[in-house]
Amino acid sequence: MIDLYYWTTPNGHKVSIFLEEAGLEYHVQPVHIGKGEQFAAGFLKIAPNNRIPAIVDQAPVDGGEPLALFESGAILEYLADKSGQFLPRETRARFQVLQWLYWQMGGLGPMAGQNHHFVRYAPEPIPYAIERYVKETARLYGVLDRQLAGREYVAGDYSIADMAIYPWAKGWEAQQQRLEDFPQMAAWLQRMAARPAVQRAYALAEEINRDPEALLTAEARRLLFGQQR
């Protein structure tokens, strides 16, 4: 059994997609980041960076005590190794997947995240910041689009790289992007959205979070970003 500490953000979706794809048994523990539940002492013991997602594997691969993990990329890599799915063992294929996982973790996620912040959450528009992150998001989608040329999935076969990238790329419209600029990515988004496990993961999100606009309240902004107004 995997305990999934989760909220309905792109990083949260990565892990729920994997668990649905792999068919692993899991229990969801919602952590409402708009209400500050990520700062609870019990959660901080599992995720000291006070960010979701996190997991506790009640039956870890080494047979020892329950194993707690935070950071979505590390969680995906661990679960892939545990289940033997979506991450090849062979060296070249494995690192083809891992480099794109790390590309998402170090590039697309942070840049699209800043895009989301300055476009949607900042207390007042900052044109320079908006332009900076909208353009960098577009550059990264250009990289992804070229990678997908002639490939059904990012690293060839479906993998944790696709699961990591999709929840961020799915938000292209809110990131002020034009999907027609990225035809290979557009086709890949359709393939991803058609996967039953992906659909189940997003159905879970709708079930858990019935008010997606809750993160836009003044109190949520204060908790998430330290905003005083």
What's the number of structural domains?
2
Radius of gyration: 18 Å
- Which of globular, elongated, flat, extended, rod-shaped describes the shape? globular
What is the fold-level CATH name, i.e. the topology of the largest domain? Glutaredoxin
The number of helical elements comes to 9
Instruction: Name the beta content range.
Output: 5-15%
Helix content: 55-70%
Helix and strand content put the structural class at alpha+beta
Note the gap between the termini. Answer: 42 Å
Q: Which strand order do you get reading across the main beta sheet?
A: 2-1-3-4
Please outline the major beta sheet: 4 strands, mixed
Mean pLDDT: 94
- The ordered H/E elements are EHEHEEHHHHHHH
Briefly, what CATH class of the largest domain?
Alpha Beta
The CATH architecture designation of the largest domain is 3-Layer(aba) Sandwich
Account of the 3D structure:
The chain is an alpha+beta fold and 229 residues long. It folds into two domains: 2-85 and 199-225, Glutaredoxin (3-Layer(aba) Sandwich), CATH 3.40.30; 91-194, Glutathione S-transferase Yfyf (Class Pi), Chain A, domain 2. The protein is 55% helix and 8% strand. The chain has helices spanning 10-22, 41-46, 72-83, 91-121, 127-148, 160-169, 183-193, 196-208, 218-225; strands at residues 2-6, 26-30, 54-57, 67-70. Strand 1 (2-6), helix 1 (10-22) and strand 2 (26-30) form a beta-alpha-beta unit. The chain is globular. 34% of the residues are buried. The mean pLDDT is 94.
